[in-house]
Write a structure and sequence with these properties.
Chain lengths: 114, 109
């Protein structure tokens, strides 16, 4: 299994500002992902965080809005840039220990944008 | 576009009954299938994984997979009020998992 620490757990931000979310895993993992869960919705994949290279973004998500860093195999950050109220959501870091196996999730970051 | 479809519910069952949750998926080459439970305000937690056609049982939970029909289900026997949550179906599609919108289950005592 994997223990994932995600912070902050929640934040209230002003429109136009940026927030960086950190994800720390207790072991080296190959695959790390960032998901978004909007109110009352399911999880939507934002991007795959690649160690040492640019993240791979899903359709509808762009690097300028959601820059991601992955400096090593245990840590990643997601920044939500130039925030608007539509960015209010839960952001979840997740890791996969082996291909095609289950994902482990961090505790999530509840973001509210005013 | 790869899709995972679930009935949103709510599905209401009395305590002790069997709850049946269903999911269909669009990508025929999917190889791994998961059911997650999510309580309000919490992260998803894995309940069951299934990779081969047929049934897989774990305690009160049974996952069923039919790849020909692109269908996966979750049965919860002897439902308890603590089972009240949203159940997310997730399908392995090459890289990260694709999630359905979830089915809300309510178990009344």
């Amino acid at each position: 299994s994997a223990v994932i620490s995600q912070k902050p757990s929640r934040d209230i931000c002003q429109r136009g500002t940026s927030l960086t979310i950190q994800c720390q895993v207790d072991s080296q993992v190959t695959m790390m992902f960032w998901y978004r869960q909007q109110p009352g919705q399911s999880l939507t994949l934002i991007a795959t965080a690649n160690q040492g290279s640019e993240a791979t973004y899903e359709s509808g998500f762009v690097i300028d809005k959601f820059p991601i860093s992955r400096p090593n195999l245990t840590f990643s950050t997601l920044t939500v840039s130039n925030m608007s109220p539509e960015d209010s959501s839960i952001y979840l870091c997740s890791v996969e220990l082996r291909a095609n196996e289950k994902l482990f999730f961090g505790s999530g970051t509840q973001l509210s944008v005013l | 576009q790869k899709e995972v479809e679930q009935n949103s519910g709510p599905l209401s069952v009395p305590e002790g009954a069997i709850a049946s949750l269903n999911c269909t998926y669009s990508d025929r080459v999917s190889q791994s299938f998961f059911w997650y439970r999510q309580y309000s305000g919490k992260s998803p937690e894995l309940i069951m994984s299934i990779y081969s056609n047929g049934d897989k049982e774990d305690g009160r939970f049974t996952a069923q997979l039919n790849k020909a029909s692109q269908y996966v289900s979750l049965l919860i026997r002897d439902s308890q009020p603590s089972d009240s949550a949203t159940y997310l179906c997730a399908v392995g599609a090459g890289t990260a998992l694709i999630f359905g919108k979830g089915t809300t289950l309510s178990v009344s005592s």
